[in-house]
Specification:
This protein is of the alpha/beta class. The protein has helices spanning 30-44, 68-71, 76-95, 112-119, 146-154, 156-165, 171-177, 186-201, 205-217, 225-236, 240-250, and strands spanning 6-11, 14-19, 51-56, 61-63, 101-105, 108-110, 122-126, 130-132, 169-170, 182-184. The protein has 2 domains: 6-201, 2-enoyl-CoA Hydratase, Chain A, domain 1 (Alpha-Beta Complex), CATH 3.90.226; 205-250. Strands 1-2-3-5-7-10 form a 6-stranded mixed beta sheet, with helices on both faces. It has a 4-stranded mixed beta sheet with strand order 4-6-8-9. It binds coenzyme A. Coenzyme A (COA) binds at residues 24-25, 27, 64-69, 108, 110-111, 134-135, 138.
């Protein structure tokens, strides 16, 4: 996979996507959004990929937002299209992948950067990271799902304050708010992400995807997450992973899941 703005590497079953526009603090221009879509799609369809990490290149930024220079002169219709297409091909797309995505937030995660981290399945951060949705300081609002996902993750009151003030919070505050699960030094960020990825990859990938779907369905309008849980729970009983997992337990050995 060759991309203009992304670096892709692999270690065991873990694929690492690094957004690579350090001179622009990894701001998401349209080309990068399209490339991210292609990269996530390809990696998700590769059964040897058990987890995907997303991070930013350089020591300063995860992603400093959508590329302001690209949309500064957009019309109302173009603005709406930008938001709709971005949500469809990247932010909702990532949230609904069957492969777990961990965001390793290594610096500024602002606007679209925080929105990308929030669309990932969970987040860890380095202690220098700063997070915020500063869009109202530009006269616009978060358009890549930020108004919805921030409130889901940190609660309505905190989301309102963060959006209205357009301020940044530290990694420590983000951890306290439940926005990131762990904080570490910058050097230890990817090793920690890899450690979590390795732990995930020892489990049944089929069961993990089913659980992610059930959890996500709680946040979808008109979808009953409890019903999804019931049907996905039942579905698991027909998988080879379930047979292997339960047999391994009863035989007192480690499971070796076929992922089917
Ligand atoms: N879109 C486009 N370019 C961006 C960008 C963005 N969201 N964020 C940073 N850049 C560019 C800067 O324009 C600058 O480019 P230049 O060197 O060609 O002038 C380069 O990245 C470095 O940024 P700079 O502002 O010089 O770094 P800094 O350390 O002084 O400040 C930030 C860092 C993150 C505080 C600042 O870049 C910033 O506020 N960025 C915009 C954040 C934002 O509003 N995001 C939401 C967008 S909807």
């Amino acid at each position: 996979m060759n991309f203009e703005n992304l670096l892709i590497s692999r270690e065991n079953g873990c694929a690492i996507i690094t957004i690579n526009r350090p001179k622009k603090l990894n701001a998401l221009n349209i080309e990068t959004i399209e490339e991210l879509h292609d990269a996530f799609k390809k990696l998700d369809s590769d059964s040897s990929v058990k987890t995907i990490l997303i991070t930013g290149s350089g020591e300063k930024a995860f992603v400093a937002g959508a590329d302001i220079s690209e949309f500064a002169h957009f019309s109302v219709e173009e603005g709406e299209d930008l938001s709709r297409r971005g949500q469809e091909i990247l932010f909702d797309f990532v949230e609904n992948l069957s492969t777990p995505v961990i965001a390793a937030v290594n610096g500024f995660a602002l606007g679209g950067g925080l929105e990308l981290a929030m669309a990932s399945h969970f987040r860890i951060a380095s202690d220098n990271a700063k997070m915020g949705l500063p869009e109202v300081s530009l006269g616009v609002i978060p358009g890549y799902g930020g108004t919805q996902r921030l409130a889901q993750l940190v609660g309505k009151g905190r989301a309102m304050e963060m959006v209205m003030t357009a301020g940044m919070i530290s990694a420590e505050e983000a951890n306290k708010f439940g926005l990131v699960n762990h904080i570490t030094t910058q050097e230890e960020l990817l090793p920690l992400a890899m450690k979590l990825a390795a732990k995930i990859s020892r489990n049944s990938s089929i069961a993990i995807s089913a659980a992610m779907k059930a959890i996500n369905d709680n946040y979808k309008d008109g979808v009953n997450g409890f019903e999804t849980e019931i049907s996905e729970f039942g579905h698991c009983f027909g998988t080879e992973d379930f047979k292997e997992g339960t047999s391994a337990f009863l035989e007192k050995r480690s499971a070796n899941f076929p992922g089917k």
